[in-house]
Design a protein that fits this description.
This protein is an all-beta fold. The protein has one helix at 128-131, and strands spanning 32-36, 41-45, 50-54, 64-68, 78-81, 84-88, 94-97, 105-106, 135-139, 142-152, 155-166, 173-178. The strands form 3 sheets. Strands 1-2-3-4 form a 4-stranded antiparallel sheet, with no helix packed on it. It has a 4-stranded antiparallel sheet with strand order 5-6-7-8, with no helix packed on it. A 4-stranded antiparallel sheet has the order 9-10-11-12, with no helix packed on it.
Length: 179
Amino acid sequence: NNTEGDQFWNSAETGLADSTRWFRIEGGVVRCIVPFANRNRVLVFSDTMAYAFDITRIESGDALDTLFPIGCAGPKAAVELDGVVYWMDRKGKIWAWSGNTARPEEVSYMIDDENLGDSVISQIDRSASNLAKVCAFGMGKKICFSVGTIELDGKTIQNAVIKLAASQNGLRANFSLDA
């Protein structure tokens, strides 16, 4: 659509070259973009960083904020549910961020502790081709991550799905694993 204002320019700008409605991520490839409900922001993830693009500051030319050095596994590896964004990073860890703190909280620590048995997180294939296929989705109060095939306690689980049951504040979770 070439309608002014629906693109990355408006009548005060002559085109994309002098527009303030776009941004460049230096030194990283954009992996995932997630709308952040009710906050006028879009989260943008590279492999190693998270940024917020604030749509209320577009005209000022200062709409991009660097948030924290935690990236996203792939283009479908993040989801927003009830005002909290959940995502998997390239190490297989699952994070949650409500936007109210400076840093997100790792919510996968309960399934990433070798002292409690086999770590589910360590069993995820971290090859670039597999991580690109990780898919996050929400159903009701559950957040799910489809992570491919994993080996756990001597068993192979095809099409494994890590499920989180989010608590009331969204930052604590109970986990289960399905095929």
